[in-house]
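Input (structure):
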C-alpha cells in the first residue's frame, strides 16, 4: 500500500502527540503513587512504558518490521522530554496535577486510538483487525503501566468508560475513512469524539458498572 506524504505527516503528528501526552500522564501517575516511592528511573521508566507500550505491542502484532519506537529516535526523545516535564511539577499532587493527568490521559486516548487504527490500515490489515489494534494502541501502554505498578489495569475495572471512548474514536475514524474523508479530517473527528465522550462522562458521572457475581 503506497502512502502519500500527507498521510505520513498526519500519522506522525498524531502518533507523537499521543506519545507526549501518554508519557506526561504516566510520569505524573508515577509521581502521585504513595504505595511505592518511585525515583527518577521509576518515573521516567513508567513514562516510557505508558507512552510506547501500546504502539510497540501494535507493531509487533502487525509484523511489518521492528516497532517504530525502536526505529525512530524521536519516539524516545519525545517520551523522555514529556517525562522530564512531569518532573518540573511541584512535590504535592494537588487538584492542578490531577487535572493535568486527566487531560493528558484523555488526549493520549484519542490520539493513540486513531494512530493505531491508521497504522493497521496502512499495513493492509482488514477493518476488524485495524479496530482491535486501535484499541490495543489506546489502552496498551496504560495497562502495562498499571501491571508494572502492581495493580489491575484500570480499563478492566468499573469506572470511567475508557475503552468505550477509545472504541468510539476508532469507529468514527473508520466511518470517516470509509466515506472518503481526508485523513486529517477523519483523524481529527476520531480523536475529538473520544475526548468529548470522556468529558461528558466526567461531567455527568457516567461510569461502567461492575458485572461480577454477588455473594448470596
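Output (sequence):
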Amino acid at each position: 500500500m503506497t502512502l502519500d506524504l500527507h498521510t505520513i505527516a498526519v500519522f506522525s503528528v498524531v502518533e507523537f502527540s499521543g506519545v507526549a501526552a501518554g508519557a506526561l500522564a504516566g510520569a505524573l501517575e508515577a509521581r502521585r503513587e504513595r504505595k511505592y516511592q518511585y525515583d527518577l528511573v521509576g518515573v521516567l521508566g513508567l513514562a516510557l512504558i505508558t507512552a510506547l507500550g501500546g504502539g510497540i505491542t501494535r507493531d509487533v502484532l502487525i509484523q511489518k518490521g521492528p516497532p517504530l519506537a525502536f526505529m525512530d529516535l524521536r519516539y524516545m526523545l519525545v517520551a523522555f522530554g514529556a517525562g522530564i516535564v512531569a518532573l518540573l511539577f511541584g512535590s504535592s499532587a494537588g487538584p492542578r496535577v490531577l487535572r493535568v493527568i486527566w487531560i493528558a490521559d484523555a488526549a493520549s486516548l484519542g490520539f493513540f486510538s486513531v494512530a493505531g487504527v491508521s497504522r493497521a490500515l496502512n499495513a493492509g490489515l482488514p477493518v476488524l483487525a485495524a479496530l482491535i489494534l486501535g484499541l490495543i494502541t489506546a489502552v496498551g501502554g496504560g495497562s502495562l503501566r498499571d501491571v508494572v505498578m502492581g495493580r489491575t489495569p484500570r480499563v478492566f475495572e468499573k469506572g470511567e468508560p475508557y475503552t468505550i471512548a477509545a472504541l468510539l474514536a476508532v469507529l468514527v475514524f473508520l466511518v470517516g475513512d470509509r466515506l472518503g474523508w481526508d485523513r486529517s479530517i477523519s483523524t481529527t473527528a476520531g480523536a475529538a469524539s473520544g475526548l468529548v465522550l470522556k468529558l461528558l462522562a466526567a461531567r455527568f458521572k457516567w461510569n461502567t458498572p461492575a458485572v461480577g457475581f454477588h455473594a448470596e
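Notes: The first helix runs from residue 5 to 32. The mean pLDDT is 90.
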